[in-house]
């Protein structure tokens, strides 16, 4: 189902209701799997290592698996007003972000992964994106008009708490940076040396009222090579161990 639905992003309510029944089928089987561990602890040591996203039930972008966007989601829920234009603010934000970044072939989502190290209490979210990958204008020509470039967006979060019985993982976002993806041209060291201190900036934004950039993920199923997490809206994120691991992010520049 993950392959057929392109990790879940083939079902997009903004475009139409097609694949809705397939998404419901996928959710049904996920819930059956989750039920087998409903009252079982999820040991901390099983979280260690690299996990790649293979399926999600979310609409409006797989980018929502990143702790940065999970923190945005929870921040909207803590605000004085949780709706705008008759819609949930977080869902509206995700919808607009997807429309702005993924329309007309401007951006294409690649590998999405999380790397968890319980010895240092860190979680690195890794999100590959290629820009201008499909920039051909209809009726004008067939050749690609702009070069493709991109990289991996890295978000580092600190693990503040983990409850093995419930599987609840509490995170606080620290910074966002980038890393080169082999074979994909990027903008060089100028971009790779930039580290955005999301955690520090977050508290200064007036709508956050001094709150840190926090979020939670609850691991509702966990074994040696498969993991299912849910966000605060109850949407599923399914991860598996990679057959080929990538070199971890190196924070040597800072």
Question: How many individual helices?
Answer: 5
Q: How would a textbook summarize the main sheet? A: 8 strands, antiparallel, barrel
The multimeric state of the shown protein is: single chain
Helix/strand order, N-terminal first: HEHEEHEEEEHHEEE
Strand order of the largest sheet: 1-4-5-6-7-8-9-10
Arithmetic mean pLDDT: 83
Which shape, going by the Cα principal axes?
A: globular
β content, as a range?
Answer: 25-35%
Low-confidence stretches: none
Radius of gyration: 19 Å
Q: How many domains make up the coordinates?
A: 1
Percent helix: 10-25%
- The secondary structure category is alpha+beta
Distance between the termini: 41 Å
Number of strands: 10
Task: Please characterize this protein's 3D structure.
The chain has helices spanning 20-35, 67-78, 89-102, 189-192, 198-204; strands at 49-56, 83-84, 87-88, 107-117, 122-131, 149-163, 168-179, 214-222, 226-230, 236-240. The chain is of the alpha+beta class and 254 residues long. The strands form two sheets. It has an eight-stranded antiparallel beta barrel. A two-stranded antiparallel ribbon has the order 2-3. Strand 9 (226-230) and strand 10 (236-240) form a beta hairpin. The N and C termini lie far apart (41 Å).
């Amino acid at each position: 189902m993950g392959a057929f639905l392109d990790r879940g992003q083939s079902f997009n309510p903004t475009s139409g209701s097609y694949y809705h029944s397939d998404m419901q089928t996928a959710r049904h089987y996920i819930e059956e799997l989750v039920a087998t561990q409903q009252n079982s602890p999820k040991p901390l040591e099983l979280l260690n290592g690299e996990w790649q996203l293979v399926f999600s039930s979310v609409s409006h972008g797989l980018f929502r698996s990143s702790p940065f966007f999970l923190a945005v989601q929870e921040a909207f829920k803590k605000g004085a007003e949780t709706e705008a234009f008759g819609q949930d603010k977080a869902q509206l934000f995700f919808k607009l972000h997807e429309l702005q970044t993924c329309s007309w072939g401007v951006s294409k989502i690649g590998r999405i992964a999380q790397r968890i190290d319980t010895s240092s209490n860190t979680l690195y979210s890794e999100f590959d994106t290629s820009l201008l990958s499909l920039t051909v204008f209809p009726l004008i020509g067939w050749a690609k008009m702009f070069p493709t470039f991109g990289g991996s967006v890295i978000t580092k979060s600190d693990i503040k708490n983990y409850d093995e019985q419930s599987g609840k993982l509490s995170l606080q976002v620290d910074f966002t940076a980038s890393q080169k993806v082999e074979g994909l041209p990027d903008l060089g060291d100028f971009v790779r040396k930039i580290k955005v201190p999301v955690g520090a900036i977050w508290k200064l934004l007036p709508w956050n009222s001094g709150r840190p950039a926090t979020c939670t993920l609850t691991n509702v199923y966990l074994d040696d090579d498969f993991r299912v997490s849910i966000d605060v809206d109850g949407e599923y994120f399914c991860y598996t161990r990679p057959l080929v691991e990538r070199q971890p992010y190196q924070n040597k520049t800072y």
